[in-house]
């Protein structure tokens, strides 16, 4: 016996080497759930297979042949009666100093593994020792209970694993010479077959753990050694594309089953909706469930229901809860991940997972990124958009605003782009999810100032946007925004910074977002996006948000820290492709995007330059204008004495329009106010005058009443702030005022007279612009930049045929929206650069400028030959805002645009160089271009004005009247001398030593004349004489026209002269910013023809406490003569009488009217056009007289108040009878 024991001991082989291992490896096809977790949590993944160690440490590598032979001999000689099946159906953990190791094992110890271990140890000459057989799943992040229970809960969700033990695997560590220890891995040295218990053929074992590992390991330690020492490295996970299993709900079994592709194609839908929602995981373990019902309700709300739903931050617990809901099972019968709590499905891989649900079947794959737990779920839908598959990628990029996290985001975006481009090059894509890209300019600039990020990171953020744009991906929110299809609740405010519009993560409104804001500085961010690459198959038609707070029992409930988003797209087929809304119009407005140079791209430098030029109002100016508007509102809406009851019954709305409403005003801007109510224009202005005059002690001064083309207007001064007040009679509009911005243009509420629509147009257009601009802050900054340039270069005044605020607004809006549609988000510098680049090359002669996102087809506007420039607004009536443009003015504008484009194209150009040194105020900014103007022309036409009256209203009226006539001279000179460059400076000049006095004002306007750049012909002496004669004739005609107007020109208090001056005679002139006259409220408030016209067609009601409405008489017969009245009947009545009275012949009458450029003209009554869309349309307020063709008798004249048709004005009934 002693000898036998000695032989046994002498034959033993030491089992102390960590270079080898003897283990059991489960079948690979049964390890999917295990490897999904191991790839993320086990640092031994890709170094070790999923395994159960029998002996580790094992024998030295050089002793492996002998050890294998002994083990095989020992196992072959044992008669196994019991089953050798292994069942892994329980989970447990080992505690280490700094972590836990999570494993799965057998709940019922059958002894089969213990017997195998005993046999092998005995064969090697060792006694049996106790062993805890297990298969390692991973290591917890730390030693906390929550980290342990989180991973342990996932291990418990792994479906029970049962397999027969057919062989033992011998592994040996591979050491690569010269390589880091992290490259070490366990290789298959051989196997030991266990005696067969059936005739089953054992398939060969492959090194699948080596093949599936995308990276080499980070350390030379293996999983088993680390069980004793705790984790020291991050697990290395698979970077290979992982095919996914789609699940479908089976109503019969009330469970989710694996979907098997049937090959049948579903019909192509007319539209496709995609929703994306980050549902928020706010705790690792235990999972918080209090928000689950609210999240479920948000997902199933009408605003969220979609064909495809992409969820982020989905946990095992929440997905199991969600997929057991009957309503969700009906709406979304297909899902990328089944409920983990279903026994045959298994856990989700990560804490925060991306899950795709759909009403249609799909196949999918997981594309891992370079960071753990990050990747994209890429789903493929076979026939949703026709013959080509639709690819939908759900993403959740790395969070945070640090150098590392931003770099990671770019790599992840690049990885996804590469994958989609490589595998789906010609298919339409949809990429939806939480991109975690900071969009708030304030957040980014603050992080840069605090040195939380570098300048390179700022560039990286921009490059991510460029990357997606270059891939052909379009932002559905941007497209919907520019097309007015964004149905999101409008919470955008004036205090938003660039990139904060359309925010989906808003700490200011969402308490959960405020608690998790991290590096967002509590600023709104548009983290969540739905991007599409249409490939001609998709067209965005709507966008909306969901998941906003709801009130339950008086308490606001917030489902998640993100708002959800949904995009609705039309599916474009071959039959519907030609009907794509706005496609033709978009093709006519193609842009060639251009990026601003690096020296111009700094938004802070652009802003500081504009601040230096006084392009931003001060805090005091902001407050004073708010106070001025509040005061006007208080005065006009307040009841008058004795009319409190009646006035309160009259709906009256006061709002702002123009630059103030758009938020682009400067210190030199006035406030344009529009009142809308149910009373007539005449009644409103009488009532307004009474109240305004009573409020003079509060700082309100009524300067004058202006009869503009858009109707009557009051010019006010409210504590030094200039205010223009207009009124629109529209009772139904006032009653539904809050709905107005969102009402469709075809709504019956807009069945109003043309004059009322004209007055409402500025408000409706601005409301549409604000609702469709992707970023108001970017637009406002770019607007101020362009306005400063236009003022400096002397091309900011529509009265002189140049640009105005509405020109810049429309031009900039169109360029901005088109750029966002094509390339995505952009900075103010990019927008300004593209503005100049595009319009410097725009063909104004052939093309009309309009917004193709509003006008889906070519607008019904007939451009006349007298309109060298056509810019159309939005709502009816359709009119050219550039109707005052002239050929010389357009030439000047194009020249300046090209110069600006050339300058900004320089690599080293800066904003400071572009704008020059700042002036003391915006009024003097034009001095930069004024000097060029005074020295760049050969000679100048000088229009002198002298005024010695005292009334400010009359002085301003004189100046405005002369300015409105200056274009007549510019056009006349251009026609007479087309070879000359003609340019008028849009401001009044005065001598540098002149001072304003109480009795004398003297100024002049200058028109520069120089030879055209293309005129190379030698000019003879006779040519010069002829040119001077033509010029003198132009001067004479112009001066005669001015002096013949007795209404505006009074030789008793003013004088106007015109002459030709040399450059030396005008070079010392300075700009005159004086007000001509003193304030005296002595203007006439009698109504004129326009008031009469408006009253006849107003949708109005008189004040209840005042007199009854006048009733218009029925049309009289041709033989009766109406009673004469004191007021002159309007031209429209005369026009209708002459046209429709059967006793009168329209061909026998002539209409005399005032042409804007040529003065008084005549045309036959039959040729007079009343439709605004006609080329020859002329507003009726320009009609001067009607006369009979046969005898030349003037039957109606505005100036002399003659009316031989109705007997109104200064005519008597007897004169009417004799005339007719």
UniProtKB/TrEMBL annotation:
<dbReference type="GO" id="GO:0005634">
    <property type="term" value="C:nucleus"/>
</dbReference>
<dbReference type="GO" id="GO:0003723">
    <property type="term" value="F:RNA binding"/>
</dbReference>
<feature type="domain" description="Poly(A) polymerase central">
    <location>
        <begin position="778"/>
        <end position="915"/>
    </location>
</feature>
<dbReference type="Pfam" id="PF13563">
    <property type="entry name" value="2_5_RNA_ligase2"/>
</dbReference>
<dbReference type="Pfam" id="PF04928">
    <property type="entry name" value="PAP_central"/>
</dbReference>
<dbReference type="InterPro" id="IPR036691">
    <property type="entry name" value="Endo/exonu/phosph_ase_sf"/>
</dbReference>
<dbReference type="Pfam" id="PF20750">
    <property type="entry name" value="PAP_NTPase"/>
</dbReference>
<keyword id="KW-0507">mRNA processing</keyword>
<keyword id="KW-0808">Transferase</keyword>
<keyword id="KW-0479">Metal-binding</keyword>
<dbReference type="GO" id="GO:0046872">
    <property type="term" value="F:metal ion binding"/>
</dbReference>
<dbReference type="InterPro" id="IPR043519">
    <property type="entry name" value="NT_sf"/>
</dbReference>
<dbReference type="Pfam" id="PF03372">
    <property type="entry name" value="Exo_endo_phos"/>
</dbReference>
<keyword id="KW-0539">Nucleus</keyword>
<feature type="domain" description="MJ1316 RNA cyclic group end recognition">
    <location>
        <begin position="1128"/>
        <end position="1198"/>
    </location>
</feature>
<dbReference type="InterPro" id="IPR040459">
    <property type="entry name" value="MJ1316"/>
</dbReference>
<feature type="domain" description="Endonuclease/exonuclease/phosphatase">
    <location>
        <begin position="276"/>
        <end position="562"/>
    </location>
</feature>
<dbReference type="GO" id="GO:0031123">
    <property type="term" value="P:RNA 3'-end processing"/>
</dbReference>
<keyword id="KW-0460">Magnesium</keyword>
<keyword id="KW-0067">ATP-binding</keyword>
<dbReference type="GO" id="GO:0006397">
    <property type="term" value="P:mRNA processing"/>
</dbReference>
<dbReference type="GO" id="GO:0005524">
    <property type="term" value="F:ATP binding"/>
</dbReference>
<dbReference type="InterPro" id="IPR009097">
    <property type="entry name" value="Cyclic_Pdiesterase"/>
</dbReference>
<keyword id="KW-0547">Nucleotide-binding</keyword>
<dbReference type="InterPro" id="IPR011068">
    <property type="entry name" value="NuclTrfase_I-like_C"/>
</dbReference>
<dbReference type="Pfam" id="PF04457">
    <property type="entry name" value="MJ1316"/>
</dbReference>
<feature type="region of interest" description="Disordered">
    <location>
        <begin position="498"/>
        <end position="521"/>
    </location>
</feature>
<dbReference type="GO" id="GO:1990817">
    <property type="term" value="F:poly(A) RNA polymerase activity"/>
</dbReference>
<comment type="similarity">
    <text>Belongs to the poly(A) polymerase family.</text>
</comment>
<protein>
    <recommendedName>
        <fullName>polynucleotide adenylyltransferase</fullName>
        <ecNumber>2.7.7.19</ecNumber>
    </recommendedName>
</protein>
<dbReference type="InterPro" id="IPR048840">
    <property type="entry name" value="PolA_pol_NTPase"/>
</dbReference>
<dbReference type="InterPro" id="IPR005135">
    <property type="entry name" value="Endo/exonuclease/phosphatase"/>
</dbReference>
<dbReference type="InterPro" id="IPR007012">
    <property type="entry name" value="PolA_pol_cen_dom"/>
</dbReference>
<feature type="domain" description="Poly(A) polymerase nucleotidyltransferase">
    <location>
        <begin position="599"/>
        <end position="728"/>
    </location>
</feature>
């Amino acid at each position: 016996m002693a000898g036998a024991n000695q032989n046994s001991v002498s034959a033993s082989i030491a089992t102390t080497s960590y270079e080898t291992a003897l283990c059991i490896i489960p079948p690979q096809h049964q390890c999917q759930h295990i490897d999904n977790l191991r790839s993320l949590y086990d640092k031994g993944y890709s170094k070790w297979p999923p395994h159960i160690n029998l002996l580790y440490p094992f024998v030295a590598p050089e002793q492996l042949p002998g050890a294998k032979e002994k083990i095989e001999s020992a196992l072959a000689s044992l008669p196994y009666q019991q089953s050798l099946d292994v069942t892994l159906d329980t989970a447990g953990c080992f505690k280490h100093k700094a972590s836990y190791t999570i494993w799965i094992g057998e709940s019922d110890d059958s002894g089969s593994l213990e017997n195998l271990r005993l046999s092998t140890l005995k064969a090697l000459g060792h006694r049996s020792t106790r062993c805890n057989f297990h298969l390692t799943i991973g290591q917890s992040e730390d030693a906390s209970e929550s980290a342990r229970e989180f991973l342990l809960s996932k291990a418990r969700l792994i479906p029970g694993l049962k397999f027969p033990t057919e062989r033992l695997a011998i592994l040996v560590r591979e050491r690569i010479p010269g390589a880091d220890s992290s490259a070490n891995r366990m290789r298959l040295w051989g196997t030991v077959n266990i005696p067969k218990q059936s005739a089953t053929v054992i398939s060969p074992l492959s090194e699948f753990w080596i093949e599936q590992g995308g990276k080499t390991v980070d350390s030379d330690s293996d999983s088993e050694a680390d069980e004793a020492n705790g984790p020291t490295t991050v697990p290395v996970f698979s970077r290979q594309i992982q095919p996914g299993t789609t699940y479908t709900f089976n109503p019969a079994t009330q469970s989710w089953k694996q979907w098997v592709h049937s090959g049948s194609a579903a019909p192509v839908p007319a539209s496709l909706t995609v929703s994306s929602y980050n549902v928020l995981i706010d705790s690792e373990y235990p999972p918080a469930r209090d928000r689950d019902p609210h999240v479920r309700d948000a997902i199933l709300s009408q605003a969220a229901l979609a064909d495809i739903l992409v969820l982020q931050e989905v946990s095992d617990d929440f997905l199991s809860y969600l997929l057991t809901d009957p309503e969700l099972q009906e709406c979304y019968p297909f899902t990328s991940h089944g409920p983990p709590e279903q026994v045959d499905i298994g856990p989700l891989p990560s804490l925060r997972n991306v899950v795709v649900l759909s009403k249609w079947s799909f196949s999918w794959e997981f594309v891992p990124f370079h960071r753990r737990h990050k990747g994209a779920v890429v789903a493929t839908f076979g026939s949703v958009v026709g013959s080509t598959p639709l690819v939908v990628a759900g993403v959740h990029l790395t969070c945070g605003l640090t150098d590392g996290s931003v770099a990671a985001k770019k790599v992840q975006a690049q990885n996804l782009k590469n994958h989609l481009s490589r595998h789906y090059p010609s298919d339409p894509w949809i990429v939806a999810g939480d991109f975690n890209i900071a969009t708030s300019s304030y957040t980014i600039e603050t992080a840069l100032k605090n040195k939380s990020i570098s300048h390179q990171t700022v560039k990286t953020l921009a490059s991510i946007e460029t990357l997606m744009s270059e891939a052909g991906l379009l932002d559905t929110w941007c497209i919907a925004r520019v097309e007015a299809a964004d149905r999101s609740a409008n919470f955008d405010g004036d205090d938003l910074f660039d990139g904060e519009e359309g925010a989906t993560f808003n700490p200011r409104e969402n308490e959960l977002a405020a608690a998790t804001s991290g590096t967002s500085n509590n600023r709104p961010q548009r983290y969540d996006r739905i991007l599409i690459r249409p490939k001609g198959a998709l067209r965005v038609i709507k966008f909306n948000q969901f998941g906003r707070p709801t009130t339950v029992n008086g308490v606001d409930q917030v489902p998640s820290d993100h708002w959800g988003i949904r995009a609705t797209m039309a599916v474009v087929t071959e039959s519907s492709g030609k009907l794509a809304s706005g496609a033709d119009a978009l093709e006519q407005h193609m842009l060639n995007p251009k990026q601003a140079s690096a020296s111009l791209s700094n938004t802070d430098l652009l802003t500081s330059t504009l601040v230096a030029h006084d392009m931003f109002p001060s805090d005091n100016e902001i407050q004073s204008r708010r106070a001025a508007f509040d005061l006007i509102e208080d005065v006009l809406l307040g009841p008058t004495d004795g009319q409190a009851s009646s006035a309160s019954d009259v709906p009256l709305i006061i709002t702002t329009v123009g630059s103030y409403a758009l938020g682009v005003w400067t210190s030199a801007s006035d406030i344009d106010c529009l009142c809308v109510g149910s009373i007539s224009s005449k009644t409103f202005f009488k009532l307004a005058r009474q109240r305004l005059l009573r409020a003079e002690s509060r700082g309100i001064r009524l300067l004058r009443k202006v009869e503009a083309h858009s109707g009557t207007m009051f010019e006010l001064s409210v504590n030094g702030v200039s205010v223009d007040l207009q009124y629109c009679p529209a009772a139904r509009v006032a009653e539904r005022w809050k709905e107005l911005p969102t009402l469709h243009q075809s709504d019956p509420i807009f069945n109003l007279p043309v004059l009322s629509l004209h007055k409402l147009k500025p408000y409706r257009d601005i409301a549409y612009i604000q609702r469709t601009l992707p970023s108001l802050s970017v637009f406002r900054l770019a607007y101020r930049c362009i306005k400063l340039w236009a003022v400096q270069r002397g091309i900011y005044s529509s009265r002189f045929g140049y640009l105005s605020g509405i020109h810049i607004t429309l031009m900039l809006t169109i360029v901005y929206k088109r750029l966002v549609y094509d390339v995505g988000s952009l900075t103010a510098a990019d927008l300004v650069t593209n503005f100049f680049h595009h319009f410097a090359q725009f063909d104004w002669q052939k093309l009309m400028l309009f917004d193709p996102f509003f006008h889906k087809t070519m607008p019904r506007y007939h451009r006349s030959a007298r309109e060298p420039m056509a810019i159309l607004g939005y709502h009816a009536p359709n009119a050219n805002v550039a109707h005052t443009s002239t050929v010389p003015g357009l030439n000047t504008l194009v020249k300046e645009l090209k110069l600006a484009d050339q300058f900004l194209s320089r690599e080293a150009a800066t904003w400071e160089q572009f704008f020059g040194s700042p002036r003391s105020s915006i009024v003097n900014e034009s001095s930069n271009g004024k000097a060029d103007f005074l020295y760049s022309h050969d000679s100048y036409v000088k229009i002198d004005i002298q005024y010695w009256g005292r009334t400010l209203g009359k002085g301003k009226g004189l100046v405005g009247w002369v300015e409105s006539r200056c274009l007549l001279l510019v056009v006349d000179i251009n026609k007479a001398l087309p070879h000359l460059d003609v340019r008028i400076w849009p401001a009044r000049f005065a001598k540098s030593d002149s001072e304003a006095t109480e009795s004398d004002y003297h100024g002049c306007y200058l028109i520069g004349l120089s030879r055209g750049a293309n005129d190379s012909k030698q000019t003879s002496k006779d040519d010069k004489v002829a040119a001077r004669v033509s010029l003198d004739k132009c001067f004479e005609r112009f001066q005669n026209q001015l002096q013949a107007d007795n209404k505006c020109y009074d030789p008793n208090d003013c004088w106007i002269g015109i002459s030709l001056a040399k450059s030396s005679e005008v070079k010392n002139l300075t700009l005159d910013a004086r007000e001509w006259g003193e304030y005296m409220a002595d203007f006439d408030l009698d109504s004129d023809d326009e008031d009469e016209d408006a009253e006849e067609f107003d949708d109005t009601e008189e004040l209840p406490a005042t007199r009854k409405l006048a009733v218009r008489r029925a049309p009289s017969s041709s033989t009766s003569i109406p009673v004469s009245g004191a007021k002159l009947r309007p031209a429209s009545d005369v026009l209708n009488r002459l046209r429709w009275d059967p006793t009168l012949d329209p061909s026998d009458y002539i209409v005399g009217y005032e042409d804007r450029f040529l003065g008084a003209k005549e045309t036959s009554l039959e040729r007079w056009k009343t439709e605004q869309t006609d080329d020859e349309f002329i507003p009726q307020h320009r009609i001067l007289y009607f006369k009979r063709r046969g005898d030349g008798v003037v039957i109606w004249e505005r100036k002399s108040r003659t009316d031989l048709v109705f007997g109104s004005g200064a005519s008597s009934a007897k004169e009417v009878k004799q005339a007719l």
